[in-house]
Amino acid sequence: MFRYGNFQFMQADSEDLKKEIFRLRYEVYALEFGFENPDDFPDKFEKDKYDQHSVHFAALNEEDDVIGTVRMILDSPKGFPVEHASRITGFHDKPEPRFITEVSRLAVSKKLRRRPEDGMYGVESYIPQSQGGVSDVKTKDQAFKEKRQKPVITLGLYKGVYLKCKEMGLSHMYMITEAKLFHALYKFGFVFSQVGDPVEYHGKRIPYATSWERIEKHMKEHHPDLLDFLLLGLDKKYHPKF
């Protein structure tokens, strides 16, 4: 567990915490955005067959409410969702599946998004409109204030994923998502490459892959402050050796 800003981030090990995660996913994925049919979840918990093979993370506010979540899907007989949804063609340094995780079900409560226009990831305010963000026309005062801000919940959740991957020896990462999340993550140093054609998968989605080594090297050169953020609290035996 660690704190970042006004929030605490943790791996969800208890069934009660997982239920709160599934409840948030239901609110975001089923009720708010309609990517899932609410009728498929009469208990109001959005779950699927990959959850039992996943590590779940939660972001909690000062009242200990779950206001953000993401999961790491691990290698299992069920495979990875991205490989079922798309033909993977460009994952040139792909290791054995046991060294890969697929990151998915990123969701941020609408109460914590910076703008009403922000989607489930809460990142549209951080990317240009041409790349899927909301309008980037701002006054000088707005631009000055927003320059100092980061998507704290999303970055905190991805730090949780990073720490767990290092601990488990997972070197590579999949995701299948909208282009706007790809652009937002890239802006903050999480570099991915497209590894297949776009597909219809809860809307238009693109398969991506990367390695933590690639991210670490990119951050060292372009975002050293964010690399320091990732490494804070990580056992030094797992630190990159540049």
Tell me what you see in this structure:
With 242 residues, the chain is α+β, with helices and mostly antiparallel strands. The chain has a single domain (2-238), classed as Gcn5-related N-acetyltransferase (GNAT) (Aminopeptidase, 3-Layer(aba) Sandwich). It has seven helices and nine strands, in the order ββαββαβααβαβββαα. The chain has helices at residues 15-32, 81-85, 140-147, 152-168, 179-187, 212-222, 224-231; strands spanning 2-4, 7-11, 54-60, 66-73, 100-108, 172-177, 193-194, 199-200, 204-211. Strand 8 and strand 9 form a beta hairpin. Helix 6 (212-222) packs across helix 7 (224-231). 36% of the residues are buried. Residues 135-148 have low confidence and may be disordered.
Q: What's the count of strands? A: 9
Q: What is CATH's topology name? A: Aminopeptidase
Radius of gyration: 17 Å
- Total discrete domains: 1
Tell me which CATH architecture applies here. Answer: 3-Layer(aba) Sandwich
Query: How would a textbook summarize the main sheet?
Result: 9 strands, mixed
Counting DSSP H or I runs of 4 or more residues, the number of helices is 7
Beginning-to-end CA distance, first to last residue = 27 Å
- Supply the CATH class: Alpha Beta
> How much helical structure, as a percent, in the residues?
25-40%
Overall geometry comes to globular
